[in-house]
Amino acid sequence: MKKTFRKITASITAALLCALPLANALTAGAVAKSDARYTYRKVFAVSSAKNIDRLVIGLACKTTNTDAPTANKIASGILQNTGGGAPGVYAGGANFYPSNHNVVGGLVSFHTHCNSPSDYKEISVTNLAYDPNGKLITNAVSASPTFLVGDINLDKKVNEADYQILHAGINKYAPNSSRYKFHYFGYLNVSVGNVSGNYSGYALDINNDGYLSKADDEMFKLYLESTLDRFAE
Ligand SMILES: [Ca+2]
Ligand SMILES: [Ca+2]
Q1: What is the pTM of this model?
Q2: Which of 26, 109, 119, 174 could disulfide-link to 114, CB 3.0 to 4.6 Å?
Q3: pLDDT in tens, 62-75
């Protein structure tokens, strides 16, 4: 019963409440501190040509110690952030119109900042792709789990151990200042010393540009030395 109600609430929120000002979502304890260290991200990506004209995405989460979800472009195109909410709930939303209907790889993402890794509480996700005739294309776009940016080894901490994996991954997949284009939902095999592991591709894209490159390494170093409070998106 509760689950059904949530689903209904989410679809109503996505369909009808998009124009509500975000101020409606602000309650006591909402919004991360300005120097909050933790960024959560969800990536929407497509693995093969699907003739996508419009992608409608949404991400609803609780407001406690958390900023409102905001959409970011990965592929080129037009992005319109919408969004609204109800007390205690953010309903981030966006429309994305890719420049290339047959784009492959990352399309868009949502990000939000939190005071601590345990603050992020997801409620629902919307992911609808339409062709140029306005027809729904089923299973066109995949959404990653919402993940803590920088926590590559999934221990809920962002630290030197994660950086070592990133650094080794760049040496293997993007050597000599080259760039490796992510397919996002595959795994990259990376070894640090004699420990080898498979890591989600999207987890290594620290700067969220769709590629693994030296720029990800540099951004992570700035974060570890606290020159950067948090990853932007
Ligand atoms: Ca970690
Ligand atoms: Ca990158």
Answers
A1: 0.87
A2: 119
A3: 999 999 999 999 99
